[in-house]
Amino acid sequence: MEQNIGATCRLVLEDGTIVRGRSFGKETAACSTGEVVFNTAMCGYQEALTDPSYSGQILIMTAPMIGNYGVCKDDLESERPQVAGFIVREASRTASNYRSESGLGKWLKEHDVISMDGVDTRALVRHIRQFGALRGVICTDNSRTDAELVQIAKDSKGMAGQDLATQTSAEFTSEWAEDLGEWNVHKSNPATERLRVVALDCGSKSSIYKNLVSAGCDVISMPNTTSPEEIRAINPDGLFVSNGPGDPEAVNSTIETLRVMAKELPTFGICLGHQMLAIALGATTWKLKFGHRGANQPVRAVDTCKVEITSQNHGFCVDETSLKDVGCEVTHWHLNDGTVAGFRHESLPIMGVQFHPEASPGPHDSSYLFMQFVEMMRSFHKPA
């Protein structure tokens, strides 16, 4: 059984909206600020909670019950929860799954995540859809008045202009060896020579690296502030730039590195990496009203005209017109709102996608993109 749930918790938004519920996370009185966003996935709460892209955000899950299959270390996308706060309709008091190693509430308490249930999440999400992703504060400190919390929310930082990627990036260079194991979806030839890939870690999910390894890559993870000279010293076959949190235009160090290295190496970017790669080429980005977050987002692949159901987690988007102006073409479109979901350069071996082909959670419709990156590297290095 989970520990008792019942202490008062509040979510207060910058527009004065106040939502009250029950605390089931951090037990001491505390407050945490962040941009309030929602995820429409039916499952995968553990992957979402540990996705570094959610750093600086208070996450709402729209599924009516969360936590019923517990927590398993094999499903972690990073070492700990990354969210500023967590809100659900109902937190399951029990965990029923053979893989479960802990209950969700117990795990959130251990990591001091302020969490709240007993909330009408449908009404809260409708509010965000109407007014956009708002700054908010989630609080278990009953000594704070509602008016004080509204002011704290108003004074907190929004996502625009924040370089959160550098804060969540790895501090040191390391080799990543773990693959997908029994969950491998790639058909790489084990006899084929493996490729060396430098991965600029802007807050990467571990499942992305596992996919690259399973696709035939030896991955060297490096901080997002790594210079072109340090990358050249590794002598890689290709460059990968990861997902991560915050505003892509604020991550100047990574963008400057990409301006140089994307002209020298086959380069693949996912999510924030896709956005920064576009900026490095001369394109622009803009902030979505409330973003795309879920494991059920449809995109259309231009080359095949197939609809792929994808996992997504982003609040910014690449501008279509600016891509065309810098010699790039759109490869994927978001079907929900017609925004850019992927691009490639017309003459250089450069590609990026806004969604998450590694899924985790979600379907594997787009997992072929990892092998596409591998083939792009092999073609680039093939003797003339």
Structural class assignment? alpha/beta
What is the makeup of the main sheet? 10 strands, mixed
Helix-strand pattern: EEEHEEEEHEHEHHEEHEHEHEHEEHEEEH
Termini separation (Å)?
65 Å
Reported by name, the CATH topology of the largest domain is Rossmann fold
Using the CA coordinates, give the radius of gyration. 21 Å
**Strand arrangement in the largest pleated sheet:** 10-12-11-13-14-19-18-17-15-16
Spans of at least 5 consecutive residues whose pLDDT stays below 50 are: 1-5
Do you know the CATH architecture of the largest domain?
Answer: 3-Layer(aba) Sandwich
- Tally the structural domains: 2
CATH class of the largest domain: Alpha Beta
Number of DSSP-assigned strands = 19
Q: Helical proportion?
A: 10-25%
Q: If you average the pLDDT, what whole number results?
A: 95
The tally of helices reads 11
User: What's the overall geometry?
Assistant: globular
Describe the structure.
The protein has 11 helices and 19 strands. By secondary structure, the chain is of the alpha/beta class. It has 2 domains: 148 residues, Carbamoyl-phosphate synthase small subunit, N-terminal domain (Glucose Oxidase, domain 1); 217 residues, Class I glutamine amidotransferase (GATase) domain (Rossmann fold). It has a 10-stranded mixed sheet, with helices on both faces. A 7-stranded mixed beta barrel has the order 1-2-8-6-4-3-9. Strand 17 and strand 18 form a beta hairpin. Helix 8 crosses helix 9. The chain is globular. The N and C termini lie far apart (65 Å).
